[in-house]
Amino acid sequence: MEIRKLTQNDEAQAVSFLKNHVETSLFLLSDIELGGFNYQGRLYQAEFWASFNAQGEITNIVAHCWNNMVLLQTPEVETARALHAHFRQVTTRPVGGFMGLKAHVEQAIRETGLGDKPLSMDGNEVLYKVVLEKIIMPDFDASKARLKPISELDRDIFHRWQVDYEVEALHRTPGSQLEKDIGDTLQGVIDTGNRWFLDYDGEPVSMVGFNARIPEIVQIGPVWTPVDKRCNGFARIGLALALEQARDKDGVKTSILFAENPAAAKAYIAIGYKAIGDYKLAMFKHDHTLN
């Protein structure tokens, strides 16, 4: 077995490995498309480490992202143990959390020595999938509903929605630091072209986005409706319109998402999503160095 940091020469092999686990690798694959494979500390970039078998094939990948999150695709438990030990020794940046299959995240937290560190978020979520040809469109007045690019939403409203979403869904702490973080990232979100809002009868009522995508698959996030607009089906309408647009204009075949909230899951199931597995997002209250 070999364990080492990946270079640009390994990109094709890494992408091939990740595509063999595509439904739980969308963040990794999308970030490689957006940020490339040469880490320079920029948005969407990551440092990659991998284990290899005797035939030179990748068996596990750990990606330490620009934002200090660690993304995991570590299906081989025994070699993943050695990979985590190596990562713990060589990484020079702090770790803010882990994302991946539940078993992968729990193993990584345990074997990097962070099991006793308090979490701000410990999300055990269900992974859902829908083939876009089988979307069940909700009943709504199509003359009133318009899906519009988030760039057309008033900037102050977008900022407030994003703050409220991150406090509610990601358990971020309200305050000046969060306000600054959101302000620093809004333009980047707009520039991706992967965020929209639902205008219903002339009023902005919810937002929906793709937080990762490759040509044939999109991963949903966020789906969020302000508290005073809830219980009207707006999130379901916005999501269905975004998926319909991705299918008809971009040729996307499949969508995945993960959800913990029962009400949100009910909305997703109603338009055709089916549970296919699990996913875990663990975020520490503070970033931690490993060595």
Keywords:
291 residues; alpha+beta; Aminopeptidase; 2 domains; 12-stranded mixed β-sheet; 8 helices
Quick rundown:
A hairpin with a 2-residue loop joins strand 9 and strand 10.
Can you lay out the helices and strands and say which pair or pack?
Blueprint: E1 2-5, H1 11-19, H2 26-35, E2 46-52, E3 58-65, E4 69-73, H3 77-90, E5 95-100, H4 102-111, E6 119-131, E7 145-149, H5 155-169, H6 176-192, E8 195-200, E9 203-214, E10 217-224, H7 234-250, E11 254-259, H8 262-270, E12 274-288
Parallel strand pairs: 4-5, 10-11
Antiparallel strand pairs: 1-2, 2-3, 3-4, 5-12, 6-11, 6-12, 7-8, 8-9, 9-10
Helix pairs in contact: 3-4, 5-6
What does this entry look like structurally?
The protein is α+β, with helices and mostly antiparallel strands and 291 residues long. It folds into two domains: 2-116, Aminopeptidase; 131-278, Aminopeptidase, CATH 3.40.630. 35% of the residues lie in helices and 33% in strands. The model has no long low-confidence stretch (mean pLDDT 96).
Using only CA atoms, what is the Rg?
19 Å
Number of strands: 12
**How are the strands of the largest sheet arranged?**
1-2-3-4-5-12-6-11-10-9-8-7
Quote the CATH topology of the largest domain: Aminopeptidase
Q: Could you estimate the helical fraction of the residues in percent?
A: 25-40%
Mean pLDDT: 96
CATH architectural category of the largest domain: 3-Layer(aba) Sandwich
Shape: globular
What top-tier CATH class of the largest domain fits best?
Alpha Beta
Uncertain runs: none
User: Structural class given helices, strands, pairing?
Assistant: alpha+beta
What is the total number of structural domains?
2
